[in-house]
Structure formats: structure tokens, C-alpha cells
Amino acid sequence: MKRTFPLIGLSIAFLVTAGLSAVAQPAADSAISATRVFGKVTEINTSAGTLTVKTEAGSVVAVTTNEKTTFQRMPPGETDRSKAEPTSLTEIAAGDGIYALGYVAADRKSVPAQKIYVVSQSEISKRNAAQRMAWARGAKGIVSAINPAAKEITVTSRSLTGASQAVTVAVADNAKLRRYPPDSIPKYENAKTAKFEEIKVGDQLNARGEKNAEGTHLAAEEVLFGTFKVAGGTVTAIDPAANTITINDLQTKKPMTIMLKPETVVRRFQPMMGGMGGGAGAPGGGGAPGAGAPGQGAGNGQGQAAANRPAGAGPGAGGGQGPGAGGPRPGGGMNMADLLERLPTISITELKVGDMIIMSTLPGSDPTKTTAISMVAGVEPLLQMIAARQAAGGQPRPQNVDLNSNFGGMFGGIGP
User: How much is the pTM?
Assistant: First the structure.
């Protein structure tokens, strides 16, 4: 019979990359029960046969082994224990996730392990890097047209050169479709299985798969989408204690309160040397601005949204916490959302009154409040550039920039 982890145990890989669900009190730490402990390895003493494990809730447990302890290595993301392969204590490294089975002491501070399942952090990193690149080579932007009969979606975006980029995404019956719930910060593991009919014009969408030679058609293997909005404005007040900022909305000219969640990724735009036009060294030419890691979630936003994603978080990124480097796209340079996901992350304390920001948001019933998914500060030069191009000799007006069409796809959360 096929053996799998009990549901309460979750996937080891998920525990390592996405964190453990636990309450604050060690006695109620859900990562510890009478017969098992799971968490990350912080210390190893191979000569003594001991491991120090720390759960996401902060509990520290001493795991002891002996000659009867068996060790099994799980592939990243796998939950079927029959897929595990034999390993040894000497092959475990700090940062690896382990699931130790044994009778836990009454004080929950030690366990003599009978069996240990381990997932390598380095293997997780390799897998995530490969998946980031797969998403980066895909398509992202705003759904501009849908062909139900052919099961095709047209996704449009713009490069820094201003060129409109359109990719036709073909969705085969075996493709995975996942939708981000409209009332939560998009995280890859929270995306729900969806149907083609749920995709609507105006949705933000990321797809991974194989493109044709011209880069205009993609056979989708997986599609992530959600109903998000790109908004912007000038920061007028910052409240680090409440994790909120107030902006003067770019379009409405009215105050708006922005809530930043722990998963919110905040970045700062840094104009590159050589201008922002699209020549050599400019963003439009495919250069990599800033020092941020490519991709969906993961910066650490506000000390936030760290580590589990392809840093730079999407197809993202958030990253994914998304994918990062996608290279030039058809139609005149790098996709705007791809470029922004490469920028370095900052904390809310690094935001300044007067900063102009753009952000992907969760639309709500109250137009004066919204939650930021992914935010980029210091974008006034970028908006001025786009506005000047649109003005065609007239006066550039950043408030006239269509944020959704220019920055569609920056909702983060891509990639496990």
C-alpha cells in the first residue's frame, strides 16, 4: 500500500520553504507531538549522533540518534514516503528540514529518533532556481482577450521601450490552472485549482511553458491568475508600527491607506547608468537593475516575504516569494514586471514621505483602503519616462499613465 505523510504532517519541503503553522507557546507548538518533531536543523554533532532542530514557532528540540535510527531523504516537494531514498547522518546539513519520528520527552525538548526523514535545503534551492527560470521564460501581463473555443488567452504587457507585447497562451486539457483567492495575499501554495472559464479579461496572469521561436505563442504547462489591480501615488505618511502608509492616489488625487502584510514585498527603483530608454545598459535593453535577486517573493519586504521563493520572489515575485531574469521579450525589450521583480528589497522604514510608489493590490469594497501585494518605491523617473513617451511632445503627466497595462503581471507569489 502506498504510504504518505498524514495530513497533519504536511510536506517536509513545504515546511522548509513556506514555514510551519504554530502558535506562540512552545507547549502548543504544532510542529511537536508525542511521537514526532519537524523543523530545521541548526546544529549537528555527528560524533555524538545528535541534531538540534528549531521549529518555525521557535521551539528547540535535541534529536538523538543511535545505530538503529534509519535515515531517509525525501525529494523536494514530495510527500509520498515510498519515494524516499536511504541517507545518513553525515549527509545532513544545517538548514535542512527534518521530520523525526520517536517518543518525544514530556518537556518537548528532546526525542530519541527511530526514523528521520530529511529534505536538503540545497536541493530545494536548485529546484526553486529551475522553476524560477521556467516561469521567467513564460508570459505575464494582463489578459486582453480570450478564445474559449480554442482555449487560448492573449496576454499583453509593455516593455520599457513602450512596445506592446502580446503572447497567445494555449491552455491544453492537461495544463494546470490555479487562481489566487481575491481576499488574500497571493502565495503559490495558496492558489486554488481553477477552470479555464474562470479567467476573465483584465485579470493578471502568469504562464509557464514552451514558446515558439518568435516568442509570440506559448503552450502552457501551468497558469496562475488573479483579479488584481496596479495602483500608485505619492507617500504622504508612514506608520511603521501599524505597517501602513498613506498615499495621494495618482489617478483620484484622494488619500488612500495602504496596508502592508508580512508577505508584502517592497522594492526600490534604481535608474541605471546610461539612461532608461532602451539602449545599451538601459533597462529596455535587458540589463539587470539593482542588486536584487531575480524574480517572485522573495525579498524580505519588511523583513518579510523572505526566503522561500526564488528571491525576487515570481513568475513570482514574489518572489516568490517570481521568476527573475526572463531576458528580452518579443516586441521591444524586457517586460516591466520582470524588471521590477529584480530590484533590491527594502523595509517599510526605508520608505520616505514624498516617494512615488506603484503596487499590485487586492481590490476591496472600500476605495480608501487597500492591501499591497508587491510595491516599488521611487518610480517617479520611470513614470515620467512613460508619460513623456505617451505625451508625444506634450506635457508628461504621470497620472495619465495606464498602470495596469504597463505593469500588469507584478502580483508576485509565483513559484513554490
Answer: 0.55
